[in-house]
Design brief:
Growth Hormone, Chain: A, 2 strands
Length: 469
């Protein structure tokens, strides 16, 4: 029978069927148009300028922070703060990193309300102010507030804002770009360990801090001006502090990866020079060991990033994290001479910073670019606990049973971190299989059955599957 439409047109069943087909075609066209409007990162161009800016920011935040060991050695040798204990000094070093992670919710709000550039300016001012205040410290709690809290807040405003921005500029070369940028922490650590050591001897601690205040202000300010985001094209989620991220198993696995590796990484960063002195080496030899570790960080992160772009970001993150654990157990445990310790410092340095060198591209793999800023902020927040307590835990282990227990602890933490990314790999393979099944419509019944079975994402088949992820 014919049917009458609202416009008074008479339609036959064939006409109705034709109209339905036209709507289907229009719907498919709209889907194609939406896909066509999806942002494609330029994979270069001004993105390399942004990579250089993040490199400089890392050098003048993480790199400056690694020079804390120079000031620590001076304070202990000269009893600058007689009432301070070694544990308190350890907490100051860990606090600067943990505060940078604790401030992540405020950084998210600042990015949403004020924009990325103003947020970077805030971080620049806080970092420089912290160094200036530390130069006037006369009691240990002054260092807690300046070197610990203020510097940590400034580093958080800079690092947490700048790092996800690189993911907006790169797709195929994302890990390489992040690896190059994160290597700034290693080069900065190397330069500032040597430079601060020479400055302390030449002009003293107060003026060394003032030089650092001027240097960090100039370099971070230039980088903040040149660094640009692509928020208008990417349209990231405006809600940077989203507690719902903790409901995603992928986010939880990345947090576990970071928690375990930070418990090992912080101990290596701060304890290796002290361990060198514990086996009879001089203070200068201990500082060289620390510098070699930073040298490994500087050259290792770009290489890891380049390889992960080619061989799979989650795969390489898992392998390099596990390799660091193996180095700790195979090289650090028997390291009782200067030569062996230098070899260990260089080898472990190349892979010890794998988490911070690859966390952004790995997170982008499992969350996508739109969720990346929100997920990255929520990943940083729980890492406050391991970063602040890692070094005190190591000191307690050393005091209780010597450095052997601390060495085994660090090695096991890196292996546990590798286990977390191994599980993340299984989850990602499961998600890829689901996506492939949805794209195939030749056998809907079989696809639905397989999708139900794929809810069990952690399976031996996926754990040992030969697939690049």
């Amino acid at each position: 029978m014919a049917e009458t439409t609202e416009m008074g047109r008479v339609t036959t069943p064939a006409t109705v069927h034709s109209t339905s087909d036209e709507r289907d075609v229009e719907f498919e066209d709209s889907r194609i148009n939406v896909a066509a409007r999806e942002d494609v990162p330029p994979d270069g161009g001004y993105g390399w300028i942004c990579t250089g800016c993040v490199f400089v920011i890392n050098a003048h935040t993480w790199g400056v922070n690694s020079a804390w060991g120079i000031f620590l050695a001076y304070f202990l040798a000269h009893s600058s703060f007689p009432d301070a204990t070694q544990l308190e000094y350890a907490l100051i070093g860990g606090m600067s990193i943990s505060m940078s992670l604790l401030i992540s919710p405020a950084v998210g709000v600042s990015n949403s309300k004020l924009g990325t550039r103003i947020t970077l300016f805030i971080g620049t001012g806080l970092v420089s102010l912290s160094m200036l205040m530390a130069s006037f410290a006369s009691q240990v709690w002054h260092l807690f507030l300046s070197q610990g809290v203020c510097f940590g807040f400034g580093m958080g405003f800079l690092y947490i804002t700048a790092s996800p921005m690189l993911g907006q500029w790169f797709a195929k070369k994302r890990s390489l770009a992040v690896g190059i940028a994160s290597s700034g922490a290693g080069f900065g650590g190397l330069a500032y360990n040597l430079g601060a050591g020479a400055a302390v001897e030449a002009v003293g601690v107060p003026w060394t801090y003032r030089i650092l205040a001027a240097t960090t202000l100039a370099m971070n300010l230039i980088s903040s001006i040149l660094l640009k985001d692509r928020n208008k094209m990417v349209k990231p989620q405006h809600k940077r502090f989203n507690i719902r991220e903790f409901a995603h198993i992928s986010t939880v696995l990345v947090i576990l990866w970071g928690t375990f590796t930070e418990l090992g990484y912080i101990v290596l960063l701060y304890s290796l020079p002290n361990y060198a002195q514990s086996i009879g080496l001089s203070a200068s030899q201990g500082s060289v060991v620390g510098a070699v570790l930073n040298l490994g960080l500087a050259f290792g992160r770009p290489v890891v990033g380049f390889v992960s772009d080619a061989w799979g970001r989650i795969d390489i993150a898992t392998a390099m994290t596990a390799l660091c654990g193996i180095f700790c157990l195979a090289l650090w445990v028997p390291a009782h001479s200067y030569a062996v310790l230098l070899v260990f410092a260089l080898c472990s340095g190349t892979v010890a910073g794998t988490f911070w060198g690859t966390v952004v591209p790995v997170t982008a793999e499992v969350t996508g670019l739109q969720r990346l800023p929100s997920a990255f902020g929520m990943i940083c927040l729980p890492l406050v606990v391991p970063t602040i307590f890692a070094e005190p835990i190591a000191l307690e282990l050393v005091a209780f049973s010597g450095y052997l227990s601390a060495k085994v602890f660090v090695g096991c933490m890196f292996l546990a971190g590798a286990a977390s990314t191994w599980a993340l790999r299984s989850w990602k393979i499961c998600e890829l299989e689901k996506k492939e099944l949805r794209e195939r419509d030749d056998n809907v019944a079989d696809a639905s059955s397989t999708l139900k079975q794929s809810k069990f994402w952690l399976t031996p088949r996926r754990l040992f599957m030969n697939r690049r992820v």
